[in-house]
Amino acid sequence: MSDAKNTRSQPLATTSLFLPQEAATEQLAKALSDILSHYFSNSYEKTPGTDAGAKIYLKGDLGAGKTTFVRHFLRAMGVKGRIKSPTYTLLETYKVSSLYLYHFDFYRFTDTEEWHEAGFRENLGEDAIVFIEWADKAGPGLPMPDLELNLIYESAGRTAQFNAFSEKGKTWITKLIHRKMPTGEP
Ligand SMILES: Nc1ncnc2c1ncn2[C@@H]1O[C@H](COP(=O)(O)OP(=O)(O)O)[C@@H](O)[C@H]1O
Ligand SMILES: [Mg+2]
């Protein structure tokens, strides 16, 4: 049986960096938003026959900064107004010009079939940006992400570790590595 589900296979690329304070998290989110904006505005970068969208799963303990990262990403993409954590609603949806952005939080899932019933799978196949916090709680039925972001407490800051599980995720990691890494300095 193939086991290409969720995040159990080997990543195609990986990188990690230290984020001493939230400003560094903000810079990293902004860098990724630049890379993805470019990807979504250049259809030639998309390979026919593969999923068009971006699936990014965020891992880390409570308070590690998953929601903070997504919030800064959405702001950098041009989302205006309040950005709520989807902890209670499971899904918050945003739209910037013609691009949909979905922010899921499966923390409160107890029944792994629940998300199937809720019809969330459709969002995952769209030409959209999809963030999922606590993807593990949705069980093994979720597709592999393009990128996984692990946020780990380290002294007063966080270590961010990216893993790529698709060719396009690998491209985005390569682009991140070639950018100036965030330091949190203005
Ligand atoms: N790089 C960082 N260094 C220190 N604190 C951070 C950093 N990034 C985010 N934080 C803080 O950590 C907390 C993260 O909360 P939140 O984003 O809700 O976590 P999660 O969604 O992972 O449960 C916020 O108080 C935020 O200000
Ligand atoms: Mg959260």
Q: Can you characterise this structure?
A:
Strands 1-7-6-2-5-4-3 form a 7-stranded mixed β-sheet. It has one domain (16-41, 51-178): Rossmann fold. It is of the alpha/beta class and 186 residues long. The model has no long low-confidence stretch (mean pLDDT 88). It has helices spanning 22-41, 66-77, 114-117, 121-124, 167-178, and strands at 13-19, 54-59, 91-96, 99-105, 129-133, 147-154, 157-164. Helix 1 (22-41) crosses helix 2. The longest helix is centred in the first third of the chain and has 20 residues, at 22-41. Helix content is 28%, strand content 25%. The N and C termini lie far apart (50 Å). Adenosine-5'-diphosphate binds at residues 19, 21-22, 24-25, 60, 62-68, 133, 157-158.
Please render the helix and strand layout as text.
Blueprint: E1 13-19, H1 22-41, E2 54-59, H2 66-77, E3 91-96, E4 99-105, H3 114-117, H4 121-124, E5 129-133, E6 147-154, E7 157-164, H5 167-178
Parallel strand pairs: 2-5, 2-6, 4-5
Antiparallel strand pairs: 1-7, 3-4, 6-7
Helix pairs in contact: 1-2
Bound molecules: adenosine-5'-diphosphate and magnesium ion.
CATH superfamily: P-loop containing nucleotide triphosphate hydrolases
- Domain module tally: 1
Low-confidence stretches: none
Alpha plus pi helix count: 5
Q: Helix amount, in percent? A: 25-40%
Bound compounds, please?
A: adenosine-5'-diphosphate, magnesium ion
Spatial separation of the terminal alpha carbons: 50 Å
Beta-strand content bin:
25-35%
Report the strand count.
7
**CATH secondary-structure class:** Alpha Beta
What is the general shape?
A: globular
Oligomer: single chain
Strand order of the largest sheet: 1-7-6-2-5-4-3
What's the CATH architecture name? 3-Layer(aba) Sandwich
- Strand-and-helix sequence, N→C? EHEHEEHHEEEH
What structural category characterises the helix and strand content?
alpha/beta
Radius of gyration (Å):
16 Å
